[in-house]
Design brief:
Elements lengths: L1 E11 L5 H19 L2 E6 L6 E10 L2 H17 L3 E10 L1
Antiparallel strand pairs: 1-3, 1-4, 2-3
């Protein structure tokens, strides 16, 4: 079993409160779960209303598929208009 881990740091545009941040992140996380069948959670920057750090995990038997899926996830996040990807870290276990 191959585990792909992805840590992404995001800047949330037009967020004026933690409530607005949660609203944006909820939509992003739901779309990621639905589209890629992954586990995703906010892992840092809980108190900052314009920043978020998400942890994403993807499992498969094939390392190439894990790499491909993580690349597609990054591309999806980059096209999500309410956030800007500011940093990323990928690890394959």
């Amino acid at each position: 079993m191959i585990v792909g881990l992805l840590r992404v740091e995001l800047l949330i545009h037009n967020s004026r409160s933690l409530k607005a941040k949660r609203h944006v992140l909820k939509g992003l996380k739901e779309r990621l779960r639905r589209g890629f069948n992954i586990s995703v959670a906010e892992i840092d920057n809980h108190d900052k209303w314009q920043r978020a750090t998400l942890g994403i995990a993807y499992l498969d038997r094939n390392k190439a598929l894990v790499n491909s899926a993580l690349d597609k996830i990054l591309n999806f996040i980059e096209t999500f208009h309410e956030v800007q990807l500011t940093d990323q870290e990928m690890e394959i276990l």
